[in-house]
Amino acid sequence: MRATSCLTMGGMSGVSITERLFGRSEPEDREGACTDSTVSRKAVSLAQQGRFGEAIDCFDRVLKDDPANVKMWNNKGVFLDLLGRDQDALDCWGKALSIDPDFAPAWVSRGMLYRRRNRLEEALACYDRAVELSPDSAVAWYNRSGVFVAMHRLDDAIACYERVLAIDPHFVAAWADLGYAHFLQHRHEEAIGCYDRAIADDPGSVRVWSLKGGALYALGEYRKALECFDKVLSIDPKYAAGWSMKCSVLYHLGMYRHALACADKALEINPSCELTAQVRKMLLSLIQKW
Q1: Alpha-carbon span 56 to 79, nearest angstrom
Q2: pLDDT by residue (tens digit) across 228-237?
Q3: Rounded to whole angstroms, how far apart are CA atoms 72 and 56?
Q4: What does residue 285 show for φ and ψ, rounded to 5 degrees?
Q5: How far apart are CA 233 and CA 243, in angstroms?
Q6: In degrees to the nearest 10, what's the CA dihedral of 236, 239, 245, 249?
Q7: pLDDT tier at 43 (50, 70, 90 boundaries)?
Q8: What is the pLDDT at residue 189?
Q9: pLDDT tens-digit profile of 253-283?
Q10: What is the rounded distance in angstroms from the CA atom of residue 59 to the CA atom of residue 35?
Q11: Which residues contact 224 (CB under 8 A, 6 or more apart)?
């Protein structure tokens, strides 16, 4: 279940499975790379069907004939990581780096696992090595920024996001995360500018529209925030958080009955949201006093 969701959602910290295997706008530079990419794409297709054993077999068949193929060792490790087999994944990346210590994708992959296990210093060391080896890797810089966010080093994170976007101005997740970093520093106008850049490339992103709505809400721009949350719900009517956020905006606009309807919708989708349940009680109290 965990592995399938990572594949279908298309992201682990904003980086899709294919970007982990192939890189984002990064050229293949080893002999046989076309064959390697074909094998990897077949493995992705099998994994998307839930056939993870067969996906890993794709890499094993190549490695049987070409045991020094560092890309296949890295990619096998990525799939084992998706399955939660941490040590097996680390062993694959260790094998890749024993063959070629300068193979940057294996450093990125190792860093991603360490980051998810909250081993932040080890993750940062991996990304430092990756960007040293591949300074034009948008994926490496992007993941490095995530470690700085976890360390509450927002200025360092922002510098990394800016480096990502200098390499790839259409990296939507970097625009969204840069915006959120600005938001955390209470620079709401700058955050909105970043969200607008992300929306220009991905107008169907529920996350980015939600973030923009949140920034507008923080500025007291409730009507504009409402437009954002309406957009969120037009994209995904079953997004419980969207209904909750719309409820909050309507409350601030004094539209209590409409807000209550949104709270009811949110709780219908996600009955376990205690905050929305509390807001609903407050709205009922307000309405009953009229």
Answers
A1: 7
A2: 999 999 999 9
A3: 10
A4: -65, -45
A5: 7
A6: 40
A7: confident
A8: 97
A9: 999 999 999 999 999 999 999 999 999 999 9
A10: 11
A11: 216
Reading the block at residue 199, the tokens are 């929306």
Choose among 47, 57, 39, 38: nearest CA to 16.
Answer: 47
Tens digits of residue pLDDT in 77-109: 999 998 999 999 999 999 999 999 999 999 999
Looking at residue 193, its amino acid is: G
Q: For tokens 């069907």, what's the residue?
A: 49
Look at residue 289 and tell me whether its pLDDT is greater than 60: yes
pLDDT computed for residue 114 by the predictor: 96
Q: How far apart are CA 163 and CA 144, in angstroms?
A: 11
Yes or no: say if 160 and 141 are a contact pair by the CB < 8 Å rule: yes
* Look-up of token digits 């004094």: 254
pLDDT recorded at residue 30: 47
- According to the 3-state scheme, what is the secondary structure of the chain? CHHHHHHHHCCECCECHHHHHHCCCCCCCCCCHHHHHHHHHHHHHHHHCCCHHHHHHHHHHHHHHCCCCHHHHHHHHHHHHHCCCHHHHHHHHHHHHHHCCCCHHHHHHHHHHHHHCCCHHHHHHHHHHHHHHCCCCHHHHHHHHHHHHHCCCHHHHHHHHHHHHHHCCCCHHHHHHHHHHHHHCCCHHHHHHHHHHHHHHCCCCHHHHHHHHHHHHHCCCHHHHHHHHHHHHHHCCCCHHHHHHHHHHHHHCCCHHHHHHHHHHHHHHCCCCHHHHHHHHHHHHHHHHC
Using CA atoms, how far apart are residues 123 and 13, in angstroms rounded to an integer? Answer: 14
Structure tokens at 50: 């839930």
What is this structure's pTM? 0.82
State the Cα–Cα distance between residues 278 and 268, nearest whole angstrom: 14
